[in-house]
UniProtKB/TrEMBL annotation, chain A:
Pfam families from the UniProt entry: CoA_trans (PF01144)
Protein name in the entry: CoA transferase subunit B
SMART domains according to UniProt: CoA_trans (SM00882)
Organism listed in the record: Bizionia argentinensis JUB59
UniProtKB keywords: Transferase
GO function terms (MF aspect): CoA-transferase activity
From TrEMBL, chain B:
Name of the protein: CoA transferase subunit A
InterPro entries in the record: 3-oxoacid_CoA-transf_A, CoA_trans_fam_I, CoA_transf_BS, NagB/RpiA_transferase-like
Transmembrane segments: none
Any matching Pfam family: CoA_trans
Organism: Bizionia argentinensis JUB59
Amino acid sequence: MLDKNGIAKRIAQEVQDGYYVNLGIGIPTLVANYVRDDIEVEFQSENGVLGMGPFPFDGDEDADIINAGKQTITTLPGASFFDSAMSFSMIRGKHVDLTILGSMEVAENGDIANWKIPGKMVKGMGGAMDLVASAENIIVAMMHTNKAGASKLLKRCSLPLTGVGCVKKIVTNLAVIEVTDKGFKLLERAPGVSVEEIQKATEGTLIIEGEIPEMSI
Amino acid sequence: MINKQVADINEAFKGVTDNMTFMFGGFGLSGIPENCIAKLVELEVKGLTCISNNAGVDDFGLGLLLHKRQINKMISSYVGENDEFERQMLSGELDVELIPQGTLAERCRAAQAGFPAIYTPAGYGTEVAEGKETRDFDGKMYVLEHAFKADFAFIKAWKGDAAGNLIFKGTARNFNPNMCGAAKITVVEVEELVPVGELDPNQIHIPGIFVQRIFQGKNYEKRIEQRTVRTRN
């Protein structure tokens, strides 16, 4: 079974040379730590920066240079700043190659719900609805089950949707899964996790074809 | 040169009254018009509709106006990190319209650019699109979103001149440029008001035509919401 860093490490393998990548808050943010250093990748943050670097050294932090999680950051050579409309032109206009975001629920038809629990948690969708409505390459990073142990990979989302039919791939602590026309297709197992365990933790239709390889991370 | 400089914030606020709709630049606490927010608290104007990506934190930014119940309605994309906001929203005291962040930016930009509405794919198939016109373009569905109508836009820029030309710094730029000229009156506070002619016309982010009133801000706190750092070796 993977921890959050393990999920990030596996997703980092999906990041290719020349990609512009938008990372959501939470596990996705960790992906930046594991991208191979022999490829060129630029990270976009929807509050208006392309070419994000690591956190600043203690004392160098600047209130005017933050990421979408409102964390102080730095920029790398070649970076740029821009306004919010232009930022979403990059996203809506499909100029960003890969979007990685967390989720509360994903359905077998690719629907995603990650912004609201009615009557309980209403923080807002931020840029998530714009991202999922336009990105062609979306990977969801999340735990396979919620804190109560219930599956987050469902036949139909129970929470208010963020987007419809948009998720292509899911990486969880248990598995790598592709969203197909027929349901969740199991691609890889996390180290030490059996197909049966994944099946048990998946409420939606799980397609298992042939031998399922273990992830190499 | 057409002069947009006003003597002080009092002159910049001429015409601000209860029940108006305001736009506020800023993302989180970065690039928020600190002086203008403080002035609104002082004036105790009420019944406000505020268009802003976020709602500040409990004791800073728009959180200050929320705390004094000056806001009737918030139009935002993300309101986390603010317990008072969440409390007022869940109890029904505060009317809240949550909209996708890109839609928020584009509804400002549409108002600035003279478009009555725009089509966006964001929110299609979700509760955000309920009751809105949708349309198919080349096999993909889009939602019609209308340009905002606001009385004042409150903007924070890094540098500006009396002609109203503006330059923003880092990610404090965010919604600020998109809101300039998107309201009936655009009020800008700057960290540094420089003599006309000093700003290189090649480097200007927002030309003065989008600005009605500009003044030198003061006492910037520029609070950091999430201080994340590396330790030096």
